[in-house]
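Predict structure. Chain length: 183.
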Amino acid sequence: MPKLIALLDRLNGITTRWAGHVATLLLAAMLGIMVTHVFFRYVLNDSFGWTEELARYMMVWMAFLFFPAAHRQGLNASLEIATNWFRDSLPWRLLQLLLELCILAVLLWCIKLGFERIERGATTVSLSLGISMAQVYYVLPLSFTLTALSSLERVLRLSHGLFFPHALPDAQDRSGTGSNAEV
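Prediction complete.
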């Protein structure tokens, strides 16, 4: 199991890094598009109809591409005050595993829903850009798959940690942040 965890750790590191780079480029492009939109609308009194729609789609892609990295680093919502008193105990580790299994199940369900959304979006065209909405929705299964891989790594790491508590560093030890599935 440690080899599989190391493989997933490496794969997740690469994929979340690249997704973060793409999301950052989308943010920069979105900024450029919005500055252009504001300039044309308020300085030249002539606005483009497509800039707002494109910026909205870029923002959706950006948010969904940052989601796997945020989950991997434990940056999602948590209530640490409720778990600090029994942190690193067996019940705490079991709770973490249970929560991460629930997260993984929801992510797998979201992958399925993402593909369904792409199917429905294939028949719809955006108003200003004239592109198939399926192209906008491709980010859903991509993002949820990358996040599910990070969640699978965490499940394996937590499962292994139940039997060998100090054998592998936890995901939070690598990133310097807290756990990503706290109550």
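Summary: Confidence is low (pLDDT under 50) at residues 172-183.
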